[in-house]
Amino acid sequence: MSVIAPGRNIVIIGLMAAGKSTVGRLLAQRLGRPFVDTDKVVVDEAGASVAEIFAAQGERAFRALEAAAVRQVAALRGQVISVGGGAVLDPGNVTHLRATGDIVLLDADPAEIAARVRNPAKRPLLAESADVVATLTELRDARAAAYRSAATHIVDTKGMDSAAVAAVLEQWAHRTPGLLSKDEL
Ligand code: S3P
Question: Which of 38, 30, 24 is nearest to 80 (CA)?
């Protein structure tokens, strides 16, 4: 990464378990960039898991911590950032992320996502669900407009593994003016 002119951030959004963190980590490795995950920032600062924060303080409190984490990571440059699945439902978060980054949506198939969710109890919005595929489909439909208007680029990940998605994103990053630094190109 160039010290003088780091590239813009690459921000990965999408439903929970869509592969944001795994893809983000792989993409960061490929580009030689740092990787940061807003859920992890929240968990580290709160000293409690996402599920514990939801249970003890409620979703509103979690969203306030998440908004603070978004502002913190959006102040950086040259990062690969993954944000929690609900972060871009708050337009203020989108404004901050857009100011310093390009936002890419990993659009994923609810059935494929559900197959990756081994422990729904760790995911508060799925914990009470009797039918994880149905709940994920509802969330995807309810969030489609917000996700699509926040995103500057969309990748349909159906049938792709994380390495393939990271490779597609790397190619996109190379094609996108101003996203990568001179050193990265
Ligand atoms: C949420 C997604 C989770 C986490 C929280 C709420 C959501 O993050 O922020 O459970 O509203 O979709 P991941 O998308 O990283 O699982």
Answer: 24
Query: CA-CA distance, 145 to 91, in Å (whole number)?
Result: 12
Work out which ligand 1 atom sits closest to the CA atom of 89.
Answer: 11
Give nearest CA residue, ligand 1 atom 1: 85
- Confidence band of 3 (pLDDT split at 50, 70, 90): low
- Best of 11, 12, 13, 16 for a ligand 1 pocket test (most atoms within 8 Å of beta carbon): 16
| pTM of the complete model | 0.95
Residues 141, 92: contact at Cβ < 8 Å?
A: no
Q: What is the mean pLDDT of residues 3-10?
A: 84
Which two tokens mark 54? 């939801």
pLDDT tens digits along 20-30:
999 999 999 99
Ligand 1 surroundings by CB, under 6 angstroms: 16-17, 20, 39, 50, 84-86, 123-125
* Pairwise CA distance, residues 73 & 83, whole Å: 10
Residue at 86: amino acid letter? G
